[in-house]
Amino acid sequence: xxxxxxxxxxxxxxxxxxxxxxxxxxxxxxxxxxxxxxxxxxxxxxxxxxxxxxxxxxxxxxxxxxxxxxxxxxxxxxxxxxxxxxxxxxxxxxxxxxxxxxxxxxxxxxxxxxxxxxxxxxxxxxxxxxxxxxxxxxxxxxxxxxxxxxxxxxxxxxxxxxxxxxxxxxxxxxxxxxxxxxxxxxxxxxxxxxxxxxxxxxxxxxxxxxxxxxxxxxxxxxxxxxxxxxxxxxxxxxxxxxxxxxxxxx
Length: 250
Description:
The protein has 250 residues and is an all-alpha fold.
């Protein structure tokens, strides 16, 4: 097999139980976090500050209704922000120096994820119009009350969750392993996204549980007012690198 083909080798199928496997990823990620505590917390803190700034702007400009779609969009774009963390984990594993193998291709994947996020936000706006017409958007508190206290709101929440879930699943499938791969391998972005998608389908139960783990941790971060994002985001970033290493380099 030539070097180019080897760079595009498919993911392994991990046969072990999913829960211990994910526990190992988190344990290794925790080790990376402890070994790089200052950088890791600074990374998470910077993202929390950005999140607070976005929430403030949306609230101050009367766009509170956009908070929930924006949070969903942020989850789609979140993997891009972990590239620096992958470099730290890769260096600790002895799989290369601190550089990025394919920075231009990471930009390509970022653009694809941004298009997905913007499409989701547009879809959320259209869904609101379908269920509530062209009425002015209320504030965040009023939007929550409308969502959970009216038949139209509950229907919008159910349909929006299903549609948003499809966007999130696609974003997760193409980005979960493509970004750490592009930090490590000099291949094109579309091949990396295809390999990432293949890895999630070949290890569907494991990928589903890992996606649920990420969602729960991000949800806890949101409920804490983004305080928990400071330690949990770098932990998830490091753990994702170890997931990639298990699937593609193990």
